[in-house]
Amino acid sequence: MELQTLTYLVVGFTFSLYIGIALWARAGSTKEFYVAGGGVHPVANGMATAADWMSAASFIGMAGLIAFLGYGGSVFLMGWTGGFVLLAMLLAPYLRKYGKFTVPEFIGDRFYSRAARIVAVICLIVASVTYVIGQMKGIGVAFSRFLEVDYGTGLLVGMVIVFFYAVLGGMKGITYTQIAQYCVLIFAYTIPAIFISLNLTGNPVPQLGLGGTMVGTETFLLDRLDQVVMDLGFAEYTTTARLSTLNMFVYTMSLMIGTAGLPHVIIRFFTVPTVKAARSSAGWALIFIAILYTSAPAVAAMARLNLMETIQPSTATENLRYDERPQWFKNWETTGLLKFEDKNGDGRIQYTADEKTNEMVKVDRDIMVLANPEIAQLPNWVIALVAAGGLAAALSTAAGLLLAIASAISHDLLKGVFMPRISDKQELMASRVAMAGAIAFAGYLGFNPPDFAAGTVALAFGLAASSIFPVLMMGIFNKRINKEGAIAGMLTGLSVTLLYVFQHKGVMFIADTSFLGSMPENWFLGIEPNAFGAVGAVFNFAVAFTVSAMTKAPPQEVQDLIEHIRVPMGVEAAQDH
Amino acid sequence: MSFKSESDAKAYWKENVSLVVKLLLVWFVVSFGCGILLVDVLNEIRIGGYKLGFWFAQQGSIYTFVVLVFVYSRKMGKLDRKYGVHE
Prior knowledge:
The complex is a heterodimer. By secondary structure, chain A is mostly helical. Helix content of chain A is 69%, strand content 1%. In chain B, a hairpin with a 2-residue loop joins strand 1 (46-47) and strand 2. The longest helix of chain B is centred in the N-terminal third of the chain and has 32 residues, at 6-37. Chain B is elongated. At the A-B interface, helix 5, helix 11, helix 12 and helix 14 of A face helix 1, strand 2 and helix 3 of B.
């Protein structure tokens, strides 16, 4: 069957599956809309968390970036998994014990202050909206390829689908659909990885194939890759760090604490019945995530090798002729994400590290995972499956994030602060309007995203890392931090990071507005904006401690609340409001 | 709260924190230590096609993280029962 038809069929089938489940479990009351009635099994919750967590950045973006960064791309692998360790040990069990709906609600109660709650809502919205921009980039890439249109059109179609999808069901619909989405996306990721690993190394396990030898030779795959890229003037794959050791350290830290501070992931731990379940749920989520994250380096290295060897076989005279380019090359040219320019007029494609002779003038990193099975000439059904998986990843995370944004606005801002008398129905309506607004805004910025999907998402993590994680952690582990400290800390962390990012990437990421221009030579200690969240977090901690030390200790009932959340016994189901 | 005494409550929290500190030490060593700071040294050693530092950064740290979270979950379960504060 033709690839296009097959892709429509597979994507259509998976979509009707998700929508079917969403309709079947359609949310009733507001409480179900937010936390799925508080009774999801840890393994099921782990799987749903994994789907929620693994977004277009993980599925579509990450391996593509690693393919071009090599060892430097490890920041994403360690950062996005290591954060779960922090989440499991420092936050999840305590927030579950506390047992309310949202993260700002906890911050508002723990710091006995409406102002703290409002500041938390602002931090949450800034981080989540940035995150959604990253998803939109991924969705745009996937739809443009799948519909064979340019990126902008693909993005518009994607926005419409995300809107219907996220507004249709609440968390309950999403919990069960996310389990289905996890299954689709993990099959879609691992099956091509297994095929390609078999082709190249003869080993069906990609994690082992990556360390194995090329079929029929004694050469290790990674050695071969190092040699191929270095012959063309690119940096060595297995040893080149991302800018500097310090930058890698800070980048990884930023992604880790950002992971633990992202509200849409934390909110998932409110859906399990007990504290014990919250702890093991984090472990299950990490197992499900690790399956993809340990395959990704293999996908990355093998995709890079296949790409290089397709375009530029070892002897220069055999370079791929442009008019004999394979179908996948043409398809990606249609989207505008892959561009060729015949600089020396020989009708062949030269792909080198030197800007003067390189004729692959644009290779968007986000196309690598989707193009990978085509480059490796895998059967059409595998390619169709990858398209469905990419869409599942992007949709599930976008939906989870939109829910977090919606609940922050309708539940925390409207019901919690400005309009306490709002009815359930109005609250639900407000949250839907908020979702629509967030999609339109993020979609608009998605036309010119600040970075590749994974890079944009990294910015979102930096913002969460610098604002939300420190106050949550201090709120649980330190009784002395008071409202003045928390508010000052959050504001400092967020503004330090935001200023640094906007200065280099443009106000609201609109490129021309970076007020002093992006200046890598002026980066603070050579730290790139994507990695700056960890520095913002240090400011947050320092300011919160200093201000708290100079002002009054929190009242007795808050100290009792902290004692209460530190112990599992006496957990209640999520409360009604 | 239903600790038998104030000192029990303190002891429980202390054991909890010390467990977390120990596990986070491992977390730090495998990722920031082996995967970033010591990567060049470890890259001298090879397992198959993997340079060891590269392996830690792209594989080993992730496997360790999974183990850490399950160890935490188990040990905390035991600690809860020891102090009679389990659910």
